[in-house]
Every structure is written in C-alpha cells, then in structure tokens.
Amino acid sequence: MDRFLPGLSEEEVDRWVPSACVLWMRMLDRLHGPHRPRLVVIDPRVTPVAREADVHLAARPGANVNQPRHPTGHRSWLDRQHHCAGY
User: Fold this and answer.
1) H-type helices in the chain, by residue range?
2) How far apart are CA 48 and CA 43, in angstroms?
3) What contacts 85, CB < 8 A, 6 or more positions away?
4) Quick one: CA torsion of 50, 52, 55, 56, rounded to 10 degrees?
5) 42 φ, ψ to 5°?
6) Residue 56 near residue 41 (C-beta atoms within 8 A)
7) φ/ψ (deg, to 5) at 12
8) 41: nearest Cα among 33, 51, 31, 26
9) In sequence order, what are the beta bridge partners of 56?
10) Is 22's pLDDT higher than 70?
11) I want to staple 41 with a disulfide (CB 3.0 to 4.6 A). Which of 22, 32, 53, 68 is the partner?
12) Taking the CA of residue 74 as centre, how many other CA atoms within 13 Å lie in the half-sphere pointing to its CB?
C-alpha cells in the first residue's frame, strides 16, 4: 500500500481512500445475501477480507499471482459472460 501513498499507514489509507470501503461493503452485502458469490483472496496477510473468503491463497510477497490464472483461460474454465480482461 505504501508504494502508492508514501508515509500513510493502512488505517490512514482506509480513511483517505473511501472507495476501498465502498467496494468492500458492496461485496459484504452480497456475501451475506441470498445468492452468495464465491470469494477468492490472494494476499500474504490474514486480513478481514481473507477471513471472509472461501479460498485464501497466502502468496509469498513478490510472487507472480498472474501465472496460475493463465490455465483458467486456456482450459475454458472462465465464465465468458462475466469475465473482463484488458478492458
């Protein structure tokens, strides 16, 4: 986080970047709603978001998390109607 906002702690980022809160609140609404989506979190830390996840992949810092994603597209495991890549 500090590489984008030097000198700010994680708590300060949450206070000054309200979009993070809004996005997570929208996700929480859906996680606790009737049609719960599956949530996969890739983060080396055990965060509140990771605790809510169905799958928490605690990648080592600096790991390339895009590499495992490649076979999903190659093997047609993606839901093409709901997936966006490259805008």
Assistant:
1) 10-16, 18-31, 48-52, 70-74
2) 11
3) 73
4) 10
5) -115, 105
6) yes
7) -70, -35
8) 51
9) 41
10) no
11) 53
12) 5
Q: What pLDDT digit, counting tens, does each position of 31-84 carry?
A: 888 888 888 888 888 988 888 889 998 888 777 776 655 555 555 666 667 666
Domain boundaries, given as residue ranges, for the chain = 1-37, 38-87
Question: What would the two tokens of residue 56 be?
Answer: 């928490």
As given in the structure block, the two tokens for residue 66 are 């895009």
Separation CA 36–CA 57 (nearest Å): 20
| Type of residue at 10 | E
Tokens representing 31 are 């996680």
Q: What residues have CB less than 8 Å from 42, skipping those under 6 apart?
A: 57, 59, 65
Q: pTM higher than 0.70 for the full model?
A: no
CA 13 – CA 4 distance, rounded (Å) = 10
**What is residue 78's three-state secondary structure?**
coil
